[in-house]
């Protein structure tokens, strides 16, 4: 079981993946919307994280033949299975988040 959990954690490891997945859990987003919604992420890093999530089958990318091109990202059915886990984490934070000490900056991010 330990190896399976290690593999599961690896799918969502990365500085921004959980935040990206939480946003896509809410609704479909365009690239620019994701970038604006995640303070401190660079275009390069967002692209890299989205490509990894897509390669792992957790998100899908749809490109529309428009000028300029429109690209949308959404969770796959497989990733939607993580919904209860995300909701449980949100409920945990609602109950205990206020008791967590605030850090000067969280993981190198600019304060919101």
Any overview of this molecule?
The chain is α+β, with helices and mostly antiparallel strands and 112 residues long. Helices cover 53% and strands 12% of the residues. The protein has six helices and three strands, in the order ααβααββαα. A three-stranded antiparallel β-sheet has the order 1-3-2. The chain starts with a helix and ends in a 16-residue tail after the last helix. The relative contact order is 0.14.
The major beta sheet can be summarized as: 3 strands, antiparallel
Count of helices?
6
Gyration radius, in Å: 15 Å
Backbone structural class: alpha+beta
Number of strands: 3
Describe the global form: globular
- Give, in spatial order, the strands making up the sheet with the most strands: 1-3-2
Percentage of β-strand residues: 5-15%
Q: Report the end-to-end length measured between terminal Cα atoms.
A: 38 Å
- Helical coverage, percent range: 40-55%
String of helices and strands? HHEHHEEHH
Low-confidence stretches: none
Mean pLDDT value = 90
């Amino acid at each position: 079981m330990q190896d399976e959990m290690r593999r599961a954690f690896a799918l969502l490891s990365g500085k921004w993946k959980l935040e990206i997945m939480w946003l896509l859990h809410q609704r479909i987003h365009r690239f620019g919307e994701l970038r604006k919604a995640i303070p401190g992420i660079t275009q390069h890093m967002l692209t890299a994280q989205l490509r990894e999530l897509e390669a792992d089958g957790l998100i899908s990318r749809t490109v529309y033949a428009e000028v300029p091109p429109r690209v949308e990202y959404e969770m796959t059915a497989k990733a939607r299975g993580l919904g209860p886990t995300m909701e449980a984490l949100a409920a945990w934070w609602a109950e205990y988040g206020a008791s967590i000490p605030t850090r000067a900056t969280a993981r190198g991010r600019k304060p919101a």
